[in-house]
Structures are given as structure tokens and as C-alpha cells.
Amino acid sequence: MSSPSTTPPRLHFVTNSPVEGLAVAERRVAAPLASVICVHGALDRGGSFVRLVRRLARFDVVVYDRRGYQGSRDLVPVNLAAHIEDLSALITSEAERGPVILFGHSYGGLVTLGAAIALPSRVDMVVDYESPLPWVLRREHFHALQGDDPVVEAERFFRRIMGDRAWDRLSEDQRDSRRRDGTALLNDLSTVRQREAPVDLRALRVPTTYAYGDQAEYYRALAIELVKVNPIIEPHEFKQAGHAAHLKNAEQLAALIEDRWAATCASG
To answer: Model's pTM, two decimal places?
Structure first.
């Protein structure tokens, strides 16, 4: 991946969000190849993409807090359909500038797939990383919820995904902020536990890459099944990568997005 001669500017929040109350931040560059809209996973926020944003130096990048989370916490309702509507509004806005690429991490990939199916003429490419799709391949070991208390489940989820040491390093204000996102988390988890698939992947018509790390056999097997469901989906494995690739493997992710965009342009 080539690097520009100057360091691109940083993310900043916008005052004219396409969805009232949705916290949106952007980073613009001169003569961008395309706009990349990043969609975060469960119990996360748009700011977690900052390392990836820095490495996507040739692209405009838009990140946002999904409704129910952080700066968008007051938006209701909180469900997959509303998440897809929010992303669709961002896509429509960015499409006026040029090509649009969607990147979804974990649950965010479910949102990107739904939006790409809904707006195939305005989405030019999708890259998702380890998005949970149990309707394609059943996951045997779902971690059961211990109750319906969002505060308890938020802390439990964070500790399971990021580790006890990461939780212990948070300040009390940071812990409280994560706990307050528990209601949105429970909705995300309920979506991936429902019996019927919320999106029809057979209807996907946008070039899509499903990326995964080499540390979880489930996602490798899922990628194989996805190709069977819809050959437009191309798998890609990262070496020495776990679930938090947007934090720990940002260089690889940025290179994948740029490489796949070059291939999409060459084929189109």
C-alpha cells in the first residue's frame, strides 16, 4: 500500500449528520479514491477505527457511533432495521461525492450487508471482518446470557472479548460508559440469536470480501459456506489475527481494502 507524502488530517465530528442525533465523524483527503464508511461491532464505537483510518490515507473515511451506542445512545428504536436505515442515509450522502466502500467489523458487517442489499447501485464494494452469521453456519458454542440486566451483560461481554486486564485498565467513567451501552448490546446479541436470517445473502450483488483471522476455525469454515451461498463473496484469511483486527491488524485491513478496491476498479 502506497503512502502519501503528507500525513492526512484526523477524524473530526460533523455538525450536519445525515441522521439527526447520529454521531458521525469524517476524515477527508485530497482526490480520494473512494469513501470508506466503517461500521463498528457490539459494545464498540466509531472511534475504535482510528488506527485503520490513519492507514487508509488515500480514501475519505466516515465512522459513526451506531444508534444506542456512545454519542448516538439516545436514538431509538435500536434494532437491525434502524441500523441499516442509518447506514443507508450515510451511503446516500457519500455517494454524491463518489464511490462508496463499506467496512464492517463483527456485528457491523451484518449492517453493511443489509445496506448493500438495499442499495446495490450506491455501494461499490463491501469488506467485512468476522461478522457473525449463524444462519449460514451454526455456531455450537454461543455464550448464553446470564440475565436481562444490560449493565451486567455489558461488563461481562467486555471482559470476555477484551479480557479482564483491559477492563481493569478502564477508568470508572469509562466502565460506566460501556455499561450504559448495554441495552444496545443486548439488542445486537438478540439479533444474532434469532432463528430466521435477517438478511438474504443470496440477494447480494455488490463485490464483497469476508475476512477472518487464523485464530478461530469457525470463521474459516463460515467463509467457505458463504461462497456456496453467494459466489460474489470472496474469503480472505489474515495470519496471526484475532477478532480485534481493526485494533491490532489495521495495516493488514487497510492493505486489503486498497487491494480489493484496485481489483474492483480493474474488473469494472
So the answer is: 0.94
